[in-house]
């Protein structure tokens, strides 16, 4: 059977790859959108936090015998706690300065983290096995679907929607949004605004770490894995609209699919298609697809 003159197995295989990449793009861009939307900080350390999540899972397995399922919970917690310490002790001092200072600080932090891990672990990747419950594949008739890849898509979509609901549909999310708009008024009601901001940064870092644990069995765990993906993720955030939670989720999946299908129809352009789309969107709608015009 053919689709647009291409065997259906090849077409669906690239569509699956696009969905998997889109799952990581959505999770990472969501974390970036949460941090920028609520803290107005462009978090260049996000790729490093993604890498830290993968390494946390690997080191927990190597030295503690911790299973994948437990690491999927512990790694985001550890990275989130580390991010909370960084936010409270260093990043919070830059909020009243120009946004450029926060961007430069997180960029430097990313270089320090990446350089440290390259020193201790080298630049080559290390394998991390998928859990035994998710090994193998399911034959759908028109294609064979690896079980772990299917889990990545489901887990990513579930966490993305849960985060959106937390920010947009709960009282805590309302406090977070209000604290960024008028912190003085919110603090007057007895709400601890600095704690809310710390939790926000920890949440964004935890989402990056969760994506890192999901990615560990798919890609090799490497100190460079964060820097290899973060530029694409920034493009996704720009297309969706800086600070837009739903924009980050939707464009993450859509651009992942666009990248995967481009490999079918025009493989030479697959590495640049996201940036071409970003350029077109910025020309037609500078605020992004879901962003609000200022």
Based on the model shown, name its key terms.
294 residues, mainly alpha, ABC transporter involved in vitamin B12 uptake, BtuC, two-stranded antiparallel ribbon, 4 strands, 3% strand, globular
Descriptive notes:
The protein has one domain (2-122, 135-284): Orthogonal Bundle (ABC transporter involved in vitamin B12 uptake, BtuC). The protein has helices at 8-39, 46-64, 68-89, 99-121, 147-169, 171-181, 183-188, 193-215, 225-240, 245-265, 273-284, and strands spanning 2-3, 6-7, 137-139, 144-146. Strands 1-2 form a two-stranded antiparallel ribbon. Strands 3-4 form a two-stranded antiparallel sheet. β1 (2-3) and β2 form a beta hairpin. The N and C termini lie far apart (49 Å). By secondary structure, the chain is mainly alpha-helical. The model has no long low-confidence stretch (mean pLDDT 90). α3 (68-89) runs antiparallel to α8, α6 crosses α8 (193-215) and α9 (225-240) runs parallel beside α11 (273-284).
**Radius of gyration from the alpha-carbon trace, in angstroms:** 19 Å
Described by the principal axes of the CA atoms, the overall outline is globular
Share of helical residues? over 70%
Low-confidence stretches: none
> Largest beta sheet: what is the strand line-up?
1-2
Named at the architecture level, the CATH assignment is Orthogonal Bundle
CATH C-level category: Mainly Alpha
- Please work out how many helical segments DSSP would assign: 11
- The CATH topology is ABC transporter involved in vitamin B12 uptake, BtuC
Largest sheet: 2 strands, antiparallel
Total beta strand runs: 4
**How many domains would you count in the coordinates?**
1
Q: Roughly how many Å apart are the termini?
A: 49 Å
Task: Give the amount of beta strand, in percent.
Answer: under 5%
User: What order do the helices and strands follow?
Assistant: EEHHHHEEHHHHHHH
